Backbone:
């Protein structure tokens, strides 16, 4: 009996020790798993810190690029590098940058995270015409006009004042084209290039090389709903008139309807681009617009078209563009080629957008 009790007690003790060892082993294993999971979670957190810092550095680089305009790529932070190439957009090759940005976790223990993306630096205007007055559909002048030529619009030393794919008829109106010096001297009327009864080489009409699509040529977008949506996304504002535009205004505006400014709009250093959709341009009393005015008719083949009515010395300094014939409403056109205003449109940050190339994002 005693031996039996001893045997049973030994068995019970052995089983108890085995169970205890199993519990201890399981506890140790569970502890290791928990510690491992904590380390994984901590590493994940530190990596996300590094990735967030890399993304922040990338956004800093993008903002510096956007603020620099088109003319130059700025100096970037040490964590951001850029490889430059080009991509064709309309008539120009635009800069495309492959950006790479790195970031570290707060304690630096997670190693570097890297993000990459490609962006295209897209100006609002991809191809400003060389002529101060550019017309698709021709010009039948019934009123007055004064156009001051681009002195090098037709090549070095070759002035260009009017460019169109159709004939230019000056017989029913009055006005002249002239050079920059004549304009400055006040002798434009007495020393013209072209005038009624005399059309000189500064007027390039019936040009077979005239763009088939002025919207594509100027803005680099298709003349359809998708192209217009792109332009609306680029625009600083969508307006129903030009009442709120002033000399302090700068950037790209789309105006749906008649544009009749209340005063000077823009300046040489801060010009504007006005896309007037399905409306007239009406300027009176020495009002000035600095930049580009594009008169856009969504159905240019339907007559009568919208028109340009500029009286009392009202002038566009830069470029006046139309995708339809002008002159049917006895409109007048005063356009002075202004190289400074047009140059600032090409290079000013107000006219630059960054477009991320689809599918180019990488975070490895």
Residues:
């Amino acid at each position: 009996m005693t031996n039996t009790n001893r045997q049973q007690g030994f068995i019970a003790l052995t089983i108890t020790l085995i169970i205890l060892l199993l519990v201890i082993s399981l506890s140790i294993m569970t502890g290791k798993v928990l510690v491992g999971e904590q380390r994984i979670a901590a590493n994940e957190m530190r990596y996300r810190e590094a990735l967030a810092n890399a993304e922040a550095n990338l956004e800093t680089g993008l903002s510096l690029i956007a603020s620099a305009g088109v003319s130059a790529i700025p100096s970037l932070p040490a964590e951001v590098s850029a490889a430059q190439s080009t991509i064709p957009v309309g008539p120009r090759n635009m800069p495309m940058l492959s950006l790479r940005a790195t970031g570290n976790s707060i304690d630096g223990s997670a190693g570097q995270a890297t993000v990459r993306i490609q962006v295209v630096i897209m100006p609002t205007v991809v191809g400003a015409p060389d002529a101060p007055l550019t017309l698709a559909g021709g010009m039948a002048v019934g009123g007055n006009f004064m156009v001051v030529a681009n002195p090098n619009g037709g090549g070095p030393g070759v002035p260009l004042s009017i460019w169109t794919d159709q004939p230019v008829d000056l017989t029913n109106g009055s006005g002249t084209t002239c050079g920059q010096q004549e304009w400055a001297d006040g002798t434009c009327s007495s020393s013209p290039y072209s005038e009624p009864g005399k059309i000189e080489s500064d007027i390039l009409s019936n040009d077979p090389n005239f763009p088939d699509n002025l919207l594509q040529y100027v803005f680099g977008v298709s003349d359809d709903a998708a192209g217009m949506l792109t332009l609306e996304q680029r625009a600083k504002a969508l307006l129903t008139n030009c009442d709120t535009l002033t000399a302090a205004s700068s950037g790209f505006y789309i105006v749906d309807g008649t544009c009749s400014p209340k005063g000077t709009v823009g300046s040489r250093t801060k010009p504007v681009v006005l896309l007037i959709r399905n409306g007239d341009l009406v300027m009176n009393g020495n009002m000035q617009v600095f930049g580009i005015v594009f008169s856009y008719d969504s159905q240019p083949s339907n007559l009568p078209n919208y028109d340009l009515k500029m009286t009392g010395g009202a002038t566009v300094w830069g470029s006046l563009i139309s995708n339809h014939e002008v002159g049917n409403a006895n409109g007048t056109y005063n356009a002075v080629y202004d190289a400074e205003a047009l140059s600032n449109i090409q290079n000013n940050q107000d006219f630059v957008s960054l477009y991320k190339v689809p599918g180019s994002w990488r975070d490895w």
Q: What stands out?
A: The chain has two domains: 2-123, 133-350. The chain has a mean pLDDT of 85. Helices lie at 2-68, 180-185, 214-219, 225-234, 339-347.
